[in-house]
């Protein structure tokens, strides 16, 4: 990450107010940005990138379980940051959430992040684009292989944004909104206060209509919305393997990330960017591939788990097969069970030995 003199007089704003409903049951008790991701709360990776870019002052726009963030990060001094918190009493949307932090801003420029996104973008370069283009608003745009799944943002030869388009079967560009914006402070002041505002549907189109200088910073950096279990697992694995960059994982990347306090028995195979949390015990002969295991999990001998998330305190029985599943906190999957793609076991649920199978019991 490039540190830049452009970063010194910049506020970072991170929107972390969502309920993370697509990730339930993981988010029943934990806000999505605080879920363990490659050994750290997801938000820690973004904060480390902000600090590495030379930005010091961070404002978190919180709502759902707001107290969890301050309890963990405090004033940010341990990360070399100054963190402040603003709580939304009622959901205000992306634009309303940005306007809600206005009173905390210290500088004339703010870089705003969607707290759901895992990105490898160079923050210094985005700020440089904003400065050199003398932009009112600069949007990080990322090129994707399949833009049909997203709204897209075309730009002219100079990089100036000329439209915001909804999802379409035949998009005119492969550039999509990557959920990171650089605002001149006055634009934030102009967002209506105290009501729901969508920057994508209301604020940005209005800025174009008013002739404001709206530019795109376009790159092909790593980008993933971490909103679904599949994307969450992939994003965590990409961090572990070094495909997605995080300053927190310098020198630690590889096929697996295992907490020093975990107990991993003989013959265990851990591949595909698997993470094993604190105090977790994995019995002999288990195989885990592309899986996120939280703290205090027990996995009994011979179990096979792939593309899954195993929450804190869960137990996976001997010779169980778990593929593409989310196992909630304290749930117990009995021996020889077979759980297949898309299954979500909610916290505390107990499935008896052999209780769910897709093949005949031998």
TrEMBL record:
This is Uncharacterized protein. Coiled coil: none annotated. The lineage of its organism: Bacteria, Bacillati, Actinomycetota, Actinomycetes, Mycobacteriales. Belongs to the transferase hexapeptide repeat family. Residues 254-342 form the Mannose-1-phosphate guanyltransferase C-terminal domain. CDD domains: NTP_transferase (cd04181). InterPro entries: GMPPB_C (IPR056729), Mannose-1P_guanyltransferase (IPR050486), NTP_transferase_dom (IPR005835), Nucleotide-diphossugar_trans (IPR029044). It comes from Corynebacterium callunae DSM 20147. Gene3D superfamilies: Hexapeptide repeat proteins, Spore Coat Polysaccharide Biosynthesis Protein SpsA, Chain A. Residues 12-239 form the Nucleotidyl transferase domain. It holds the Pfam family NTP_transferase.
């Amino acid at each position: 990450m490039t540190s830049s003199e452009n970063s010194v007089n910049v506020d970072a704003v991170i929107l972390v107010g969502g309920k993370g409903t697509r990730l339930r049951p993981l988010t029943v008790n934990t806000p999505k940005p605080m879920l363990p991701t490659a050994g750290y709360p997801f938000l820690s990776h973004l904060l480390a990138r902000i600090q590495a870019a030379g930005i010091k002052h961070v404002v978190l726009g919180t709502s759902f379980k707001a107290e969890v963030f301050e309890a963990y990060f405090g004033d940010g001094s341990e990360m070399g940051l100054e963190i402040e918190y603003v709580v939304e009493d009622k959901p205000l949307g992306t634009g309303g959430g940005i306007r809600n932090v206005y009173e905390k801003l210290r500088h004339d420029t703010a870089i705003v992040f969607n707290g759901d996104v895992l990105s490898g973008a160079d923050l210094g370069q985005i700020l440089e684009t904003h400065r050199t283009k003398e932009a009112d608003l600069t949007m990080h745009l990322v090129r994707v292989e399949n833009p049909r799944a997203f709204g897209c943002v075309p730009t002219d030869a100079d990089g100036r944004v000329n439209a915001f388009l909804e999802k379409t079967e035949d998009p005119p560009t492969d550039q999509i909104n990557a959920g990171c914006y650089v605002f001149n402070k006055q634009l934030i002041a102009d967002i209506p206060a105290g009501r729901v505002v969508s920057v994508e549907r209301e604020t940005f189109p209005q800025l174009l209509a008013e002739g404001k200088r709206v530019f795109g910073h376009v790159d092909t950096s790593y980008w993933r919305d971490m909103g679904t279990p599949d994307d969450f697992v992939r994003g965590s694995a990409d961090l572990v393997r070094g495909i997605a960059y995080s300053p927190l994982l310098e020198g630690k990347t590889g096929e697996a990330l295992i907490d020093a306090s975990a107990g991993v028995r003989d013959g265990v195979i851990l591949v595909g960017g698997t993470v094993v949390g604190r105090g977790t015990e994995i019995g002999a002969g288990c195989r885990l591939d592309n899986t996120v295991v939280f703290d205090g999990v027990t996995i009994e001998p011979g179990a096979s788990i792939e593309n899954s998330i195993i929450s804190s305190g869960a137990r996976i029985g001997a010779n169980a097969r778990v593929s593409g599943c989310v196992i909630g906190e304290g749930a117990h999957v009995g021996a020889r069970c077979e759980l297949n793609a898309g299954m979500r076991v909610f916290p505390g649920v107990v499935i008896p030995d052999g209780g769910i199978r897709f093949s005949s019991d031998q």
